[in-house]
Amino acid sequence: MTDLSRLSSSVLSGDVNTVRQLTSQALSDGIAASDVLALGLIAAMDVLGRRFGDGEVFLPDMLVAARAMHAGLDMLKPILAGAGVAPVGRVVLGTVRGDVHDLGKNLVGMMLEGAGFAVRDLGVDVSPQAFVEHVRQDGAEIVAMSALLTTTMPEMKTVIDALCEGGVRETVKVLVGGSPVTETFARDIGADGFAPDAYGAVAVARLFVAAT
Amino acid sequence: MTGPGMFRHLAFESADDLVFGRCPRPLRCGFGVELGNGSVAPEVNFTLPAMTLCEATWSQAVDHYRVMATEIVGRALFLKAPALVLEFEHLPPMTERAEWGAEITALLLEILRDAQERHGLASALRVTVVDTRLRQRPPRVRSDDVWLPLEASLRACAGAGAHILSIESEGGKEVCDAALTHGDVDGVLLALGVLAPADMDWLWTRIVGICRDSGAATMAGGDAACAFANTAMQLANQRMLPETFAAVVRAIGAVRGLAAYERGAVGPWKDCGYEGIILKAITGSPISMEGKSASCAHQSPVGNIAAAACDLWSNESVQHVRLLSGGAPAAFAETLLYDCRLMNAALSTGNERVLRDLLVESDVCLSPQAAILSPQAAFAIAGAIVAERTPYARAVAAGSKAVELLRNARDAGRLVLSAAELAWLQRIDAALCAAPSDVQELLARTQSRYGHLYDAASYGLQ
Ligand code: B1M
Question: Which of B294, B285, B297, B242 is nearest to B261 (CA)?
Fold first, then answer.
């Protein structure tokens, strides 16, 4: 029987080939794809997250591991989809109109993907209409917006209004963040959640999906 | 003489001469402000609170700027400041609509002129436009559709009387962002040793021309590696990147800055990339720096040491919210004014080296980013840069010197590095040692990783 902890170690060391080989071996041993995902791939990213929190590894190391994780995930996806196992949640992510700061937004996206969310990253300078369209198109459960400028923060409210007008506000949870954004601001504009950093964003997103 | 490769020597005899408030090439600007001629002046930057910026709110925005500037000037007069520099850093719509940027420029000038006429306050206004050229991916930074609107804004602000024209330009950022997130030295060399210097060369030739057209009323002030070095620092602040990496990126970032001077920029260099001290060592021109009193904008591990060789001392940016003492911009102006008072007292009593050394000593051992900003370290990096002729060779030299300085400091017990930081320093060192010998080889080596991100022709590479 394939040792899933070996799979985790290979993800941690960014060893794409071994991840592919062990994923395939685990599946042929009859281990459920959802277990390979949770106990092999996502478990590794959780370990890495802790090491990251302790300052032992940095973002570039995370990206190397993420690439290895995706190599395994790509093999699991068709099976998971066939078995009706959906991603943890679907997120439409973007930096709002008028704002091109994207590093924080990118980090939020990477962490969400690492945690098993399917993320549609719309990029920067994203119009409210684009958020609405992609919520419809992807059947997303979460809209995640980033803003770094005091003059683009109000754009988050415009997006929420557009979601209402587009008739999809009830179907999504709205998560906001960025250095000038506060919890109070988030509440005032009618967002469902706020996170001060990328890890917080994952925690809030997990709460969102747990509640649905 | 201007042109690529014009800087072959340092402007100072020794690192010990690199001190705040003094420059071999001082400047006079605006309403009687002297920069680098024996004193340090505050540079106050201020911005709007959370609000939408559009036609309907524009008059409110103008009111905010009027109130902020009036309160800052009031604080400066109350504290008997000998000089004051204001920085009006555009928000994107102010560059996109040239008349908006020009309107605020004119308003701020009126307030400063009045303070000079009625109270004798020496002052100057720096206007920093937004680099709006990089919205498309890959960006075509030289194409008319992105350059002409930016040019219109620069001309409008110069026409409205800006004393100092600046920009935080971003050419090369499309590659640098990816290189930073992957901790990739080759990518940093491509961005900061090839693309960004090429863009600076092109852009600053034009900005200098616009200033010349203004009849020399407007100075070509300079740029900052904000999109590169400050971004790396922010990533390191959040422990996304090792600090050693951010420190090396900052040293390499100075190479890009030199290209602006080679095209005729005169300073004062802008604050937010912190590479100014290296540029001052080479050009002898005044620089603005920010540190502890810019904690309103972001955190940094170089709060004191950043002041070691500044000629303007800035707060980066503060939004217009009320604090107990009044508006936040006026409050931070007061902080800067007191910082400057202390530096000026040191200068007038011959104690500037003592204060400088204390500012350095208090930070230098605690962070790799501080360790490369001491006058000695900056001088050594500057020396490595001018020993080479091309931007690419200079970038490799600057990075290698920074690594050497960090390693020496650590070996001598003057800098503590965690095991993870030390491992990264070794990785960076190995990557720099294995750097391609010329640009063609670098382009070939990085093509598969970064080729899709930038348009080579926009950097004169085809
Ligand atoms: C969905 O849920 C979530 C949850 C959490 C979320 C989230 C979403 N999004 C973010 N988070 C959170 O998690 C992330 C990771 O932990 C964190 O993301 P952050 O983005 O905070 O953190 C990043 C990892 C690192 N941080 C950053 O990348 C931002 C750092 C600072 C210094 C900064 C940078 C680097 C840049 N800038 Co800009 N910039 C500043 C910034 C200062 C600051 N205090 O933030 C700020 C925001 N900028 C400012 C300005 C003025 C500007 N900038 C501009 C440009 C740039 C650069 C391009 C040069 C560069 C961005 C590079 C990039 N690729 O993004 C211009 C605007 C461009 C535009 N149209 O948007 C320009 C207008 C400057 C000019 N005149 O050209 C100031 C804002 C002033 C204001 N009124 O609000 C500023 C505070 C700096 C300053 N001058 O003081 C959290 O906030």
Answer: B285
The structure's pTM equals 0.93
Give per-residue pLDDT as tens, B263-288: 999 999 999 989 999 999 999 999 99
Q: A58 and B238: CB-CB below 8 Å? A: no
pLDDT tens track for B222-246: 999 999 999 999 999 888 999 999 9
Name the minimum distance, in Å, from the CA of B180 to any CA of chain A: 8
Residue B312 bridge partners (DSSP): B41, B288
| B-chain residue closest to A102, CA distance | B177
Number of compact structural domains in chain B: 1
Of ligand 1's listed atoms, the one at least distance from the Cα of A98 is 70
Write out the residue limits of the CATH 1.10.1240.10 domain(s) in chain A: 4-82
- Please state, in angstroms and rounded to a whole number, the distance separating the CA atoms of residues B94 and B98: 6
Cα B191 to middle of ligand 1, angstroms: 20
**Are B319 and A180 a contacting pair at CB < 8 A?**
yes
- How far apart, in whole angstroms, are the C-alpha atoms of residue B100 and residue A41? 52
Task: Tell me the residue length of chain A.
Answer: 212
Where residue A116 falls among pLDDT bands split at 50, 70, 90?
A: confident
Residue B1 confidence class, pLDDT cut points 50, 70, 90:
low
Q: Are B267 and B287 in contact (CB under 8 A)?
A: yes
- Say if residues B115 and B77 touch (Cβ distance below 8 Å): yes
Mean per-residue pLDDT for B414-428?
A: 96
- CATH, range A4-82: 1.10.1240.10
Cβ atoms < 10 Å from Cβ of B130? 21
The answer as to whether B244 is a domain residue is yes
Q: Where in chain A is the domain with CATH 3.40.50.280?
A: 90-210
Rounded CA gap, B331 and B353, in Å? 28
Q: Of the candidates B51, B240, B418, which has its C-beta nearest A59's C-beta?
A: B240
A148 CA → ligand 1 middle, Å: 5
Q: How far is B47 from chain A (nearest CA, A)?
A: 9
B340 part of a folded domain: yes
The whole-chain average pLDDT of chain A stands at 92
Q: Which residues numbered 39-68 in B keep a CB inside 8 Å of some CB on A?
A: 47-53
Cα separations (Å) of A119 from A48, A180, B112, B416?
Answer: 20, 24, 50, 39
- What letter does residue B47 receive in the DSSP assignment? B
Q: Which domain holds residue B237?
A: 21-456
A58 in B contact zone (CB under 8 Å): yes
Interatomic CA distance for residues B168 and B410, integer angstroms: 33
User: What's phi and psi for B33, nearest 5 deg?
Assistant: -90, 135
| CA B231 to ligand 1 centroid distance, Å | 9
Question: Per-residue pLDDT tens for B81-117?
Answer: 999 999 999 999 999 999 999 999 999 999 999 999 9
B172 near B163, Cβ under 8 Å? no
Looking at ligand 1, which atom is closest to the CA of residue B48? 82
Domain A90-210, CATH number (from 3.40.1280.10, 3.60.9.10, 3.40.640.10, 3.40.50.280): 3.40.50.280
Here the CATH number for the domain that contains residue B187 is 3.20.20
pLDDT of residue A148: 96
